[in-house]
Amino acid sequence: MQPAGKTDAGPARTRRPSSRTRWDATDLSLVAVFAALIAALAILPGIPVGPLGVPITLQTLGVMLAGIVLGPARGTAAVLLYLVAGLIGLPVFSGFSGGFGVLAGPSAGYLVAFPLAALVSGLLAVVVLRRAKRSRTLLLFLACLAASLLTIHPLGIAGLVVNAGLPVRDAIVVDAAYLPGDVVKNLLAAVLAVSVHRAFPRLLAGRPVPRA
Amino acid sequence: MRGYGSTLGLYQPGSGFLYRTPLPVKAVVSLACAVVVIAWRSPATSAVALVLSLAALTIGAHQSPARILRMLLPAAPVLGILAVYQGVSQGWLHAVAVVGGIAACLLAARAVTLTTPTQDLLDGVARLARPFRAVGADPERFALALSIMLRSIPYLAGLFVDVREAARARGLDRHPRVAVTPLVVGAVAYAHRTGEALAARGLGGAVDEEGIGEGRPEDSGSGAGRTPPRAPGGERTDPWDAGGRPRLSPGPPSRTGVAPPRHLRC
């Protein structure tokens, strides 16, 4: 898990140039404000759950929102920015923690998974918003659910095994405690994203297809 | 907008050798602490790490034991549950190793943020990003995004409190959708306002005209030292912009005051 700090911090800067040419000031501030939104949702008091007390927070709600509201590139950048801010020690992770210390904590796997979750949910959301005209809420919900099942939960389990020293089977049981909350949060994220896209239609769907 | 501003007031002025230690040294030691504790998990390692970080805080930053304990308070529930679980399932020695190690890492990280002014921290990150310029990254825009993020957190937290109270006044505070939708829509609107304010100042800019920034000399001084300007914000009086407003083009970069973080093409 040691290189996690590096891999988190690295892409935040190396990723930027690829998409930078089409990012204007509004894109930049959308990325920054969504990173702040994740932080604001994360520092609201969370509820420690399960034997390891990895708290349920609205953090993952923010991550999913970043993906399906901003799309894959800006969404991932927002999450990476949030992680970089947390890793350099600003208290933006849940429970006002921050710094490299969290990489030793039991929730490190979840943190590492966040950018991937935003990427996957963002990619799926672009497809949904371009193609689907109806039942967008349901489809966006499924996109979020797929993203969290593909990224957050496997990596979260890995983090529990490595950092908290749990056997794999126990880790899966512990992780399952977050599933109901996750389903609710994903549903909420989908509903919110539909509202936001209705209020700001050009945010994602109206953007021209990223040119090659 | 509520007084959430102090939440991020991490730095406390004080005296001690930690305050005089350069940031890179502190950051490397703090990172090494996490790496060592994860790589060699044993009671001895954790004990050493814990003693070292406690000593650093006590001697290097003149913190009293009570204040050090208070730093761990937010993490206390998680650490407590983890300690009991590990103690019951794998023995108390193992519990000490795991929990002590995590506590040591948290304290080491806190020691860095306690003794480094936040602006220096941001500058440090921007400096860290400078080698990535070779692959086309832009440390100035990175630092700008980071500082916009930091100053948005108090705004959003205040907005959240306001929105929740409004929902409660209508007896709807049990509906998460009612409580959170205005927060997210407000966040997007705030981002658009900030983006326009940045564009109006020729900052953060956009850079569709390829190659404009070609000529910035590499010796433009400590890129990190040039602190990213504060984005204007908090103008709650602005009406929310309706959807789909055309993006303002950033216009010619202004040369007044701060230099716009031009990007270097490669």
Structure overview:
The complex is a heterodimer of chains A (212) and B (266). Chain A has 212 residues and is mostly helical. Chain A has a single domain, classed as Arp2/3 complex 21 kDa subunit ARPC3 (Orthogonal Bundle), CATH 1.10.1760.20. Helix content of chain A is 69%, strand content 3%. Chain A contains eight helices and two strands; from the N terminus they run ααββαααααα. In chain A, strand 1 and strand 2 form a beta hairpin. Chain A starts with a helix and ends in a 13-residue tail after the last helix. Chain B is an all-alpha fold and 266 residues long. Chain B has helices spanning 17-20, 23-39, 43-60, 65-72, 76-90, 92-115, 118-129, 139-169, 176-200. Mean pLDDT of chain B is 71; it is low at 1-7 and 206-266. Classes of the chains: A mainly alpha (212), B mainly alpha (266).
How would you summarize this macromolecular structure in one to three sentences?
The complex is a heterodimer of chains A (212) and B (266). Chain A is mainly α and 212 residues long.
The coarse silhouette of chain B is: globular
Q: Report the biggest beta sheet of chain A as strand number plus sense, adding barrel if it closes.
A: 2 strands, antiparallel
Estimate nothing, just give the exact number of structural domains of chain A. Answer: 1
- Report the CATH C-level class of chain A: Mainly Alpha
Keywords summarizing the entry:
heterodimer; A: 212 residues; mainly alpha; Arp2/3 complex 21 kDa subunit ARPC3; 8 helices; 2 strands; globular; disordered C terminus; B: 266 residues; 9 helices
Q: How are the elements arranged and paired?
A:
The complex is a heterodimer of chains A (212) and B (266).
Chain A lengths: L3 H17 L4 H19 L3 E3 L4 E3 L2 H12 L1 H16 L20 H24 L4 H29 L3 H9 L2 H21 L13
Antiparallel strand pairs in A: 1-2
Chain B lengths: L16 H4 L2 H17 L3 H18 L4 H8 L3 H15 L1 H24 L2 H12 L9 H31 L6 H25 L66
